[in-house]
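Recap quiz, item 2
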Amino acid sequence: MYKKRSFWLTVFSLVLFFLFIQYAQTHFDAYIIRIMNVAAIYVILGVSLNLINGFTGQFSLGHAGFMAIGAYTSALLYMSPELKAMNFFIKPLIWPLNEIQIPFLSALLAGGLLAACAGFLVGAPCMRVKGDYLAIVTYGFSEIIRVLFNNLQSITNGPLGLKGLPTYTNLWWSWGWAVFTVFFIKRLIDSSYGRALKAIRDNEEAAEAMGVNLFYHKTLAFVVGAFFAGIAGGLLGSLVMTIDPNAFNIMLTFQIVLIVLLGGLGSITGTVISGVMIAFLMEWLRIVETPMKIFGITIPGISGMRMLIFSLILMVAVLFFRHGILGDREFSWEALFSAFKKRHSTEGE
Amino acid sequence: MAILKLDGVTKRFGGLIAVNNVSLELEEGELSGLIGPNGAGKTTIFNVITGVYPVDSGKILFMNQDITRKRPHETAALGIARTFQNIKLFGKMSVLDNVRVACHYRLRASVFSAVFSLPNYVKQDEELTRESLRLLEAVGLYKLKNDRASSLPYGHQRKLEIARALATKPKILLLDEPAAGMNPEETSELMKFIRRIRDEFNLTILLIEHDMKVVMGICERITVLDHGCVIARGSPGEIQSNPEVIKAYLGSGAYARS
């Protein structure tokens, strides 16, 4: 009975949420919509990285690389041939990419799938390395992607990047994918496969001795995580309208790791909250970069002050909230109801 | 018939020969012990059997099948389960989930049917949950099924580890120092428990143990290792009076004095 009630409550709140999205898309101003889109992309990135880092315990720094693959693949597929010809003025784009154009959704999926293939290629050799070493290998991978994309002039247009991408990404696209990502990864985590992933995180040796195929499950986490990172890359490309290889550097990965750490390694709810929070904070903290007057002293605007505040947040988080906002707890209707009941009964006494 | 057979197995770590030309046979249904001084290579033998370490030479046969080159998850699926000397539970997971992980290898449903709750996955998942609950009941941890594994008291953690090993539906159970850190009362309960699960699950059990009361009390056959070599095999009575064994444990003068 409880299961049924939770299911309908979830459906009901999703309907409400998408009604809100519809309202926001038509009534909110472009600036807020833009931030909301970024928030959704952060949610996708954070949740997919949490699958690899938080639930499977494989510390990966390769997310920017997967995003780059997704962003470039989808952009090269949904851009019109004329637009591609305009972009590639140094060296023409190779055939058949220069002639094809496919709808946004299939382009996104293609980007996600190619990123998933890369996830497999990274995850497979990573069987041999653990911990810090894995972090270095995955970081190396994302650097290789960046350098490769800088030099593949006739495919990626090199450091010139791709400009004037059509903006397909709206709140429906971004939040639709965010909800699907949360759904997919939450269901994966709660399934028997998810239990195997968490067992690998808690004790790899014991997991293997209990019949868990380490190779299969680790690469599963990488493939699924990379797929959604690729989708997020595609959405981001179409949102910011321009991509170049250097946008997908270690700072981007760092930001996603920050989202995951703040939200709590192993908590999807926490990652969603911190993803949205960071997207909005990043914008609202622009205030500190404008010139201001405090007690009669004029402080000139210093660009980069935001990052200073972020570093402070991270330090406070690491020092005082080592497990992030939620640790590894998750939101559930049952917990909400039991908390509500408890409060109700104490009030009644 | 021997269910497990080690034939001249050798394992080296650099210059150290941890297991030196060991041949060993386990009869089906027998409860046997593996003893020896510290560093004799007992745990290494477990690691070699389960495939954690590849052997340098020799052969391991399980039910007449060569498992010498098999990985740990493959030997587990074939029917060799183990526990660890220092308990290795999945600490952040619930007691029930610890056991369910060990059933996972039998799941035939794909990742997609798991994510989208397709009927074939739901059915298999329910089945392995039922099996796990039955096992928890058998070891007396049913009431604690939703607790975090790391929050259990020590004795319960040992039992959970055994329950988890049983969930892989083993034919052979390898127990690495199951009585370590237990008081005499807990130890005698454990001895009864080991005998009971052997009969209930038709197991062949090989255990490593330093507590001689346990070893002499429940093992039908004992193998003694020293410096990676088998120095004696036989019934508890034979082992207790074997001069080689006393020499290994107490030094060469001990036998003469006793």
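Residues 161 and 210 of chain A are 48 Å apart (CA to CA).
The mean pLDDT of chain A is 89.
End of item.
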